[in-house]
Design goal:
Strand content: 5-15%
Number of strands: 9
Shape: globular
CATH topology of the largest domain: Rossmann fold
CATH superfamily of the largest domain: NAD(P)-binding Rossmann-like Domain
Distance between the termini: 40 Å
Radius of gyration: 19 Å
Helix content: 40-55%
Order of helices and strands: EHEEHEHEHEHHEHEHEHHHH
CATH class of the largest domain: Alpha Beta
Largest sheet: 7 strands, parallel
Strand order of the largest sheet: 3-2-1-4-5-6-8
């Protein structure tokens, strides 16, 4: 049985590979990456794999039984890219796909949801057995801003008092490894999120506590937050997207209290305090 992981050198993909190596012999794992030479550190076979070059995808999937399809990073291109992969998997005889989707993709107001729903539809229509892991927010999406926030003297955003049930990439990576190695998860759709939700006010308080610096949370209108992100160098489109996702958080798009993630991985999800501590290091 060979298991392949797309985007295996990415932030999530590399963690999925490490989790799989704890469960599966390395010779039965394949990294599907744009640049195989960059995958040497993973210690497994690497094959060239570019979502945008459909003509070579089925050959790269030759001999693969199970595929962890990690959603691409190019927003606006992903439905097409994922469709390329699914079609290639069908041609290559892949028996099972585990896909990383978006929390409550079918009801979410986030602009990311459409591409994930399109991919879920393509999976259903492919006839390939599949599992959908609807991943919630990565805690790192927020903790990556800690250094800048401390420098600026405030944590800013547009999430209001919205509850955010995030988990770390390591938590979601373990879920993917657990799912693809146990056939009981075939055909399931999981809503994955952290055990304990928090607001950005809570996050700012935790940063203040651990850093010893008073860091308030300043809630801003979406357009104002987007302008600040542009001023610190983010491209206009990406800045607008990030601000809109925060507004989505204020509407409950990043909240779930079903604890399906901790049930899947058999342990509590990483506490916010631990994620903040790691970021401050």
């Amino acid at each position: 049985m060979k298991i392949a992981v797309t985007g295996a050198t990415g932030q999530l993909g590399s963690l999925v590979v490490e989790q799989l190596k704890k469960r599966v012999a390395s010779e039965n794992l394949v990294a599907l990456v744009r640049s195989p030479e960059k995958a040497a550190k993973l210690g497994i076979e690497a094959r060239a794999f570019d979502y945008n070059q459909p003509e070579g995808l089925s050959d790269a999937l030759n001999g693969i039984d199970r595929l962890v399809l990690i959603s691409g990073s190019e927003i606006g291109q992903r439905a097409r890219q994922h469709a390329n992969v699914i079609e290639a998997a069908k041609k290559a005889g892949v028996q099972w796909i585990v896909y990383t989707s978006l929390l409550h993709a079918d009801t979410s107001s986030l602009n990311l949801a459409g591409e994930h729903i399109a991919t879920e539809k393509a999976l259903k229509e492919s006839g390939i057995a599949h599992t959908v892991l609807r991943n919630g927010w990565y805690t790192e999406n927020y903790t990556a801003s800690i250094e800048g926030a401390l420098g600026a003297g405030a944590f800013v955003g547009s999430a209001g008092n919205g509850k955010i049930a995030s988990a770390t990439r390591a938590d979601y990576a373990e879920a993917a490894a657990v799912a693809v190695t146990d056939e009981r998860h075939k055909g399931k759709v999981y809503e994955l999120a952290g055990d304990k939700a928090y607001t950005l006010t809570d996050l700012a308080a935790e940063i203040s506590k651990q850093s010893g610096k008073d860091l308030p949370y300043n809630n801003l209108p979406e357009a104002e937050y987007a302008n600040i992100l542009k001023q610190v160098g983010l491209p206009d489109m990406f800045a607008g997207a990030i601000a809109s996702w925060d507004t989505g958080a204020s509407k409950g798009d990043l909240f779930d209290d079903s604890r399906q993630l901790s049930q899947l991985i058999g342990r509590p999800t990483t506490p916010l305090a631990d994620a903040v501590k790691a970021a401050l290091k």
